[in-house]
Amino acid sequence: MAGIVPKPSGPNKLFNNPEQVFGDFRDDILRDGYAVVKGAVARERAEKYAEEMYDYLETFKGGLGFKRFDPTTYKEECLPVINEKGMCSGYGVNHETFTWDIRCEPGVVDAFAKVFDTDDLIVSFDAVNFALPKRKDTKENKPWPHQDQDPAKPDFRCLQGIVNLLPNGPNDGGLIVCKGAHRLSSEFHEEFKNEVDPVWRWTKEWYGFSDAGLAWLEKKGCPWIKIEAEPGDLLLWDSRLPHYNLSPTGDRPRFATYTCYMPAADATQEDLIKKKDAFEKQLGTTHWPNAAHVRDVSQPLMRKTGACPYNDDKPRQPIKLSERGMKLTGIPYIAASA
User: Fold this and answer.
1) What sign does the dihedral 160-163-169-173 (CA atoms) show?
2) What is the pLDDT averaged over residues 313-336?
3) What's the mean pLDDT in 119-129?
4) Category of 174 on φ-ψ map: left (φ > 0), alpha (ψ -120 to 50) or beta
């Protein structure tokens, strides 16, 4: 299967013609910058994945004391390292069986195939989200409005995704987006190109919005919308869209996996070789499927007591993938001569 030449995006790739009407969720992305694909994963399967994620926490490294129905166990000593935003990366969780099964769900992959007008896609090895309500041992999850794209590259380049696995209402945390602001991204960055006190950027492919920037978006009439979803819904958004996440304020957790795909033809051979290395070492990436950023193993996951002793970057079971799943790793698209 090695050396497959991927089919590039076709003429119906999203934003090729901004006036095009598709009659489905793609119209929402064009207009609003985001969409909810209802039931991309069958509800019973989504509930099964949520159960597997609960089991993962309850049996983590033989069991550290976490119990799903006991909020007193929602604390660091009973859990893997989960930051204040609910994100967990490390321990091989990016390559757990449930994580890969979700990435390979036909309704999820096919939504991205429609957006990019090609079936030849690669997927990110992104984190999962275990946002547990009313944790008192993490710092406050303050708003961090940002877009995950280099302001100097203003065209549509990346569609991000979240597979929601538990009922997610107004008090259950989750994704909040600035509706319609993706269409103003070029204008915004031209206006703010000489920003006096910009938000610190850890990578060029990220931009944080200052108070002045948020005021500009508000003046332009772009409201902030907290997206609500059911188990199995797929949340999609243009990377140019300002967004961040909220923590649960009610009693229910938020469980979700981050899923992002791009055409394999858009990745270089160097990208694919780097991605292959990350896969073989079972390391995670950010949302960029071309492995633009791979977890730095020299930077340990930190607990309050120091480096986490449990992280070995290995999932509980060896990765086993279908033919389509292997294609999503990008490995089959590496040239035989590489």
Assistant:
1) negative
2) 95
3) 97
4) left
Could you tell me the two tokens for 150?
A: 């280099």
Sign of CA dihedral 122, 312, 320, 160: negative
Domain ranges of the chain: 25-333
Structure tokens at 59: 């049996």
Whether 222 contacts 93, CB under 8 Å: no
Instruction: Supply φ then ψ for residue 147, to 5 degrees.
Output: -125, 145
Q: How many Å apart are CA 48 and CA 51, to the nearest integer?
A: 5
* The pLDDT of residue 37: 98
Choose among 124, 126, 115: nearest CA to 40. 115
What dotted CATH number matches 25-333? 2.60.120.620
A 10 A CB-CB count for 43 gives 12
| Ranges assigned E (strand) in the chain | 34-37, 87-88, 121-123, 128-131, 146-147, 159-164, 172-178, 207-208, 224-226, 234-238, 243-248, 254-258, 261-263, 302-303, 306-307
Band (298; pLDDT cuts 50, 70, 90): confident
Strand (E) or helix (H) holding 280: helix 269-280
pLDDT in tens, 88-106: 999 999 999 999 999 999 9
DSSP for residue 24: S
**How much of the chain, in percent, has pLDDT values that exceed 70?**
99
